[in-house]
Amino acid sequence: MAPLRVTDDDPDGDWTAPGVYRCAPQVFRIPLPLPNDGLRAVNVYAIADGSGWTLIDSGWAIAAARERLAAGLAALGAGLGDVHRFLVTHVHRDHYTQAAALRREFGMKVLLGRGEQQAFEEINRPGRRQGGSVHIERLRRAGAPQLADEVAAYPLTPADLSHWAAPDEWIENRAVIAIGADASLRELVAIETPGHTRGHLVFADPAGDLLFAGDHVLPSITPSIGFEPVPPASPLADFLVSLQLMRDRPDAALLPAHGRVGRRVHERVDELLAHHERRLDTTMKAVAEGRTTAAEVAASLTWTRRERALAELDTFNAMLAVLETSAHLDVLVERGVVSCETTDGVVRYYCL
Questions:
Q1: If DSSP codes are grouped into helix, strand and coil, which group holds residue 184?
Q2: Which of 55, 137, 167, 223 would you label with 102, given CA atoms 20 to 30 Å apart?
Q3: pLDDT tens digits, one per residue of 252-306
Q4: Residue 349 half-sphere exposure, CB side, CA atoms within 13 Å?
Q5: Averaged pLDDT of the chain
Q6: How far is residue 265's CA from residue 243's CA, in Å, rounded to a whole number?
Q7: Residue 33 contacts residue 68 (beta carbons within 8 Å)
Q8: pLDDT in tens, 232-247
Q9: Which domain of life is it from (predicted)?
Q10: CA 80 to CA 44: how far, in whole Å?
Q11: Cβ–Cβ contacts within 10 Å for residue 326, how many?
Q12: For residues 146 and 225, is the Cβ–Cβ distance under 8 A?
């Protein structure tokens, strides 16, 4: 791999391009590649902590991501062995698994939010079908049996459960994490922001006017909701509360896990809240028109920034779309404008 250069981050540039991008004093963004993923890359943030580096998120445990991370650290005059710890925002493999893989070799610490502990227990449960059996059942309840069958027929690659070994430390909500001896360089505040996953954390740097936002606040797309081994009762309700929590905090520069830097947290949170209110309105309209299952409602909506029909999506993204529609319908039930009942294993919704 060609050596990488350290340059100032460009909000108008290609955020996925290989490189090391200075986005704040002693804070560098290193985008790592993702395999077979529309997101194309995940941003790992390297923070100088005196004698080494603290990294926020780690990337997917694949050779290309390891090589790119090593090259990025080399551009900073460091190596993989100079990473003291990973602070991981959430359980998903593009954020966690490379940290677990590198820990076996170099011994750095891996820290993760306490709220993800239940997910780890489920991932490592003996006899568990890797690949999402819980989501297959959720699709059947959503009135999408054919899609459930497609997901069930997915060829499964046996998971390397060593990549899902538990972290060295569980981070509690509001924990203050010192960067540098006695917080001489900066302090990060870990804040629980459930929604994307139940234990998702963001890391706020109030003095530096930064928010390492993981997948909670993304600059141009909306994160999937509740796609995890043990989905909560109402992941969208959790997400909306977590977004409002970010809105109620002081504004900060947004450092997302996917996408460009350069935006402010409050501006983007306002857009996300407005998006979901519009989505709730269109979901309500679909129920009023006589659609009763999440699958029927999802088929009446458009998806992605390209406004695609549900039938145009691949199996994985169609699954996410139907499950997100279920989450919106559940919020309408909680708001008292829609009722639901289960008939023959399928949840149906009706206007009140």
A1: coil
A2: 223
A3: 999 999 999 999 999 999 999 999 999 999 999 999 999 999 999 999 999 988 8
A4: 32
A5: 94
A6: 10
A7: yes
A8: 999 999 999 999 999 9
A9: Bacteria
A10: 13
A11: 27
A12: no
Nearby residues of 205 by Cβ (< 8 Å), 6 or more positions away: 186, 187, 188, 189, 211, 212, 252
Whether the CB-CB separation of 327 and 228 falls below 8 Å is answered with: no
Interval 74-101: pLDDT, tens: 999 999 999 999 999 999 999 999 999 9
Task: Report strand pairing: 41-48 vs 308-309.
Answer: unpaired
Any domain includes 35:
yes
- The residues near 270 (Cβ < 8 Å, ≥ 6 apart) are 247
Mean pLDDT computed over 55-62: 97
- HSE, CB side, 13 Å, CA atoms: give it for residue 148: 16
Check if the beta carbon of residue 39 is closer than 8 Å to that of residue 186: no
The two counts, helices (H) then strands (E), for the chain are 9, 17
Helices (H), the chain: 63-75, 93-106, 117-123, 133-141, 145-152, 235-248, 265-288, 294-300, 315-334
Does any domain span residue 321?
Answer: yes
Distance, in Å, from the CA atom of 40 to the CA atom of 33, rounded to the nearest integer, reads 6
Domain hosting 264: range is 6-351
Compute the distance between CA of residue 277 and CA of residue 265 in angstroms, rounded to an integer.
18
Asked whether the beta carbons of 118 and 92 are under 8 A apart, the reply is no
Q: Which residues make beta-bridge pairs with 343? A: 346
Location of structure tokens 């299952």: 293
pTM (two decimals):
0.95
Does some domain include residue 1?
no
Three-class DSSP category at 44: strand
Amino acid in position 37: D
Establish if 71 belongs to a structural domain. yes
Q: Is the dihedral of CA 193, 277, 271, 295 positive or negative?
A: positive
User: Residue 275 maps to which CATH number?
Assistant: 3.60.15.10
